[in-house]
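Data deposition worksheet. Section B asks for the primary sequence of the deposited chain exactly as it was used as input, without tags or linkers unless they were present during the calculation. Section C holds the resulting structure in token form. Section D is free text for depositor observations; keep each observation to a single sentence. Incomplete worksheets are returned to the depositor.
Section A, Depositor: J.P.
Section B:
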Amino acid sequence: MLRLHVSTEGNDHMAAGPPEPVLDFDSKQPRVGGDGRPLYSVSVVALGPEGAEVLKVKVPGEPKGIVRGTPVTLTGVVATYWELNGRSGISFSADRIDPITSKAS
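Section C:
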């Protein structure tokens, strides 16, 4: 399995929806990360100089304060290449996903 750290510098990110629990494919039970916390998935729109992409990003623990349209910051993003039963792809995970809040003046 190939894991690459991803720089998010220079891009803007916005949640496309609220966090959703990641479920085991077979048992439909919530999956947990290596630290024992439940995994959540957030669809994130990444806006860069070349355009936009929607990424599903998994994160340990439920991110708070994130709804559709919330600007977010991603910390510790890793892209992982996977292969399974003749299929392959890239999955994304992050250490944290936090809402960007603006302070009223």
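Section D:
The domain at 2-99 is CATH 2.40.50 (OB fold (Dihydrolipoamide Acetyltransferase, E2P)).
DSSP finds no helices and nine strands in the chain.
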